[in-house]
Amino acid sequence: MNVLNFVSAFFSDSAHWHGYDGIPQRLLEHLQYSLLALALAAAIGLPVGLLTGHTGRGGNALAFIATAARALPSFGLLVLIVIVMGFGLLPVMIPLVVLAVPPILVTTYEAVRSVDPSPVDAARGMGMHESRILFQVELPVALPLILSGLRSAAIQIVSTATIAAYVSLGGLGRYIVDGLYQRNYEKVVGGATLVAVLALVTLAVFWAAGRLAVSPGVRRR
Question: Is the pLDDT of residue 1 over 70?
Fold first, then answer.
């Protein structure tokens, strides 16, 4: 059987559409892992990136941290954490957050630093507080690039959250892991297809978010 036949057989099997191992349930689990990891990464990366970008301090340290974090293999980190902490959701969240923080952190920093200094200087000359300058002057202009960092992090999380299945959790990775163990390549290909489709949907969601959140004047720049 070729790949298209595997995909067709997987999605046409009614057994894959209901129950604890059905596509809706596994998709929901995968989304829960992904959204939680993205929220945690954004809670870390956005404030630090905004603050350091606004002040212009810590750029070299951010670059070092981002490079070091990107060099860590997610699966290897997962295995190490499981050995130390045991099974559970937390050992899965840690490598996903470590994976997602660098693109959010670095892109947010660069987005704020790339804002034209003229309106920033004008706002300071008018006596505007630094926090208002950041959120009312710099952030609206930096938003497109910040969203691109969040988008990159989200796609990486969606693609990598399959590792949850290796520590007995759910998600779409369950099809891949179980399929390899059972030599059921229909299930492997079906799971991989679902992950790829979810990544494309994530792209579409962030494109739509950019259209809604970014002002037309900034989008045309």
Answer: no
